[in-house]
Amino acid sequence: MKSIIYCFCFFISVNTAVSFSQNNTRIDSLKVRLTKRTGIPKIETLDSLVWSLRKKKDSSGIKYALQELQLSKKINYTKGEVNALNFLGKIAKIQGHKIDAETYFLQALSIAKKNNLQHEIARGYNELGIFYEKENKIVAAIDAFLSSSESFEAQDNLKAAAKATANLGDLYKEIEAYPEALEYYLKSLAFSEKIADSLGLARIYLKLATLDKHRENYVEMLENALKAKQLFVKLERPKDVFNSNLEIGRAYDYLDQDEKSKEVYLETLKLIPEYKIKDASSLYHNLATLYKENGRIDSALYYYQKAQKVFIEKNDTKELSTSYNNLGNLYLELGNYKESLLNFNQSLALQETIKDSSLLQKTYVSLSNYYQTIGDFEKAYNYKDSSENVREDIYKKMNATNRFELGYMNDKREMEAQKNVVEKALLNAEQMRQIIIIILIAIVILFFVILRNRKLKQQKKESELAFEQQKLATQLEKEKQEKKLEEMLQAQERKAISKMISGQEKERERIAKDLHDRLGSMLSVVKIHYKSVEDDLQKIKNETKSQYEKANQLLDEACETVRKIAHNMISGTLTKFGLVPALKELKQKIEETKMLQIELVTHGLDNRLDNSTEIQLYRIIQELLNNILKHAEATEVTIQLLKREADLNIMVTDNGIGFDIKNLTDEGMGLKSIKARVAEMNGNVLIDSSQGNGTTITLEIPT
């Protein structure tokens, strides 16, 4: 048994490694392709790259999404903007930044609406629906999915419309609005039938079967589950066939056809290894319930416990609550009252977090039976009374609230539709009135044209002459104004150049004076000391050593002076204009050396940070670039600064030779300095590098 488990774990590990390797290969291929593309093809490649990186926890997906967004804006490719914003929303949602996610989705939808991109509008509503559904904002999700469905249907994209409509059915079923759920499931079914989408039909038949269970319409439940299975078998989708069998078995059970139900469950049980089913908890639970009904208590207990173990592992609260309730009833039949009550109480405890009126009612009935069995008739009566009133007293209130909100939303949509019809009618009437007015005006104008035709011919020569004179005068005036403007611009340009040259000369004079008065004098003294050594080599050794030491000290002071002069030259830009302008100036200076090409990408840094933080960040990036120039043998560097809600993300990536992080035992002073500065700002440093693949250093700085 242990060997089987080890083999299974090994198989899973190998599969995971292969999948991870394939994904990395695809990402590397897309990165290579990216360097060879421009314009829209490059945006499409970035789109594919972001899709592959969207689930990674680092900032790599954000980096390429921002590149896609900036390039799309640069070439005015609105579709690329919308796609990039949707990807940023998905990444933010995956990383738990809910506010950012919703903001990105709404921005994408707004741009799509502004530019009348119908497909992107429908897709944007669908993304919002998925987001709101996960946030349990049911009414907002329904409104979004409804808009998505209507938009896809208007575009005749029935496959997408079927999915959005099915999502609507799922949401209505979740709030126990079964008539509305049925309406949208049938509408989705009609879309799939119209385009002969076999997979879409199979999925909606299975959803209908699940809905029929809640509606207690078990004959139709069986019919829909059988239709779903038949299609899934033709499509060779074993996992979906497995799920269809579960609904078929349940339907037979509800119809009191226990032997057929058992036959289906046992047949499905044999398919688990063949279909590679990872989660068979529902099958175990259904089989246990069937055995319990047939009096096979030991088998029922075995499968209940087996299912319960899986429910606990995957934290399935609803199914686990049902399992505890069923186990409580089983222990009650066995006379194990302690275990029975324990399971009933565990079921009730879990139901505080779920809202399933039918399950709560069943648990109250079970507790009523329990207390009746042990002779506590007062509690038995109380739980029986609660079971009869729970739906009306508790969950009907919730459903009434939801239905009120849904009704309000539907009324609002109907009012908007009626308003649109009225506005359209008014617009048509206004257009007709304008057409009539235009026709009348045209008739009047034509009449006067005919009357004045002769007069106009006589005035034609005079008009042409006057026009030529006016044209000449206008041309002369225009040339005069242009000449005046050109003179003003030249004067302004000369003034600016004069000021710039004056400033440069003053700076050069200051630097020359510093070098002459401070560094020059120091170096002269050094020369004298060395000369004294040269002229008097026969003197005592200690005196010679003292002169050398003095010379070395003066050289150190000269170096320190040069460093201070260089510091004075750079600190002005950073202090006056901030981090981004200073980095742009640094980028320009390095690129002038022809040793490195630098791409600087910033987002969200419209306002300056505090002065000390900007100085620290500038020094860090300066040191990183210095290390790249010294060690990386790189030709290209990308610097990305992304300001988020609570932190600043900095990513510096080069295409150099890289290094093996595992062998990095002795860090240089530069890297130690960087880590010390980041630690002082309570930030984190992440280094990602390997031989031949460049280096990426990511900084997360709280703001």
UniProtKB/TrEMBL annotation:
UniProt cross-references to PANTHER family, sorted A to Z: NITRATE/NITRITE SENSOR PROTEIN NARX-RELATED
GO molecular function: 4 iron, 4 sulfur cluster binding; metal ion binding; phosphorelay sensor kinase activity; protein dimerization activity
Name of the protein in question: Oxygen sensor histidine kinase NreB
Record SMART domains: HATPase_c, TPR
TPR repeats: 162-195, 281-314, 321-354
Coiled coil: 412-495, 534-561
Primary site of residence: cytoplasm
TM region positions: 432-451
Chain ranges of the Histidine kinase domain: 510-703
Reactions accelerated catalytically: ATP + protein L-histidine = ADP + protein N-phospho-L-histidine
Cofactor: [4Fe-4S] cluster
Organism: Kordia antarctica
InterPro entries assigned to the protein according to its UniProt record, in alphabetical order: HATPase_C_sf, HATPase_dom, His_kinase_dom, Sensor_HK_TwoCompSys, Sig_transdc_His_kin-like_C, Sig_transdc_His_kin_sub3_dim/P, TPR-like_helical_dom_sf, TPR_rpt
Keyword terms, alphabetized: 4Fe-4S, Coiled coil, Cytoplasm, Iron, Iron-sulfur, Kinase, Membrane, Metal-binding, TPR repeat, Transferase, Transmembrane, Transmembrane helix, Two-component regulatory system
Enzyme Commission identifier(s): 2.7.13.3
Entry GO terms, CC: cytoplasm; membrane
Cell compartment(s), UniProt: Cytoplasm
UniProt key word Ribonucleoprotein: no
Record function comment: Member of the two-component regulatory system NreB/NreC involved in the control of dissimilatory nitrate/nitrite reduction in response to oxygen. NreB functions as a direct oxygen sensor histidine kinase which is autophosphorylated, in the absence of oxygen, probably at the conserved histidine residue, and transfers its phosphate group probably to a conserved aspartate residue of NreC. NreB/NreC activates the expression of the nitrate (narGHJI) and nitrite (nir) reductase operons, as well as the putative nitrate transporter gene narT.
Top-level division of the source organism's lineage: Bacteria
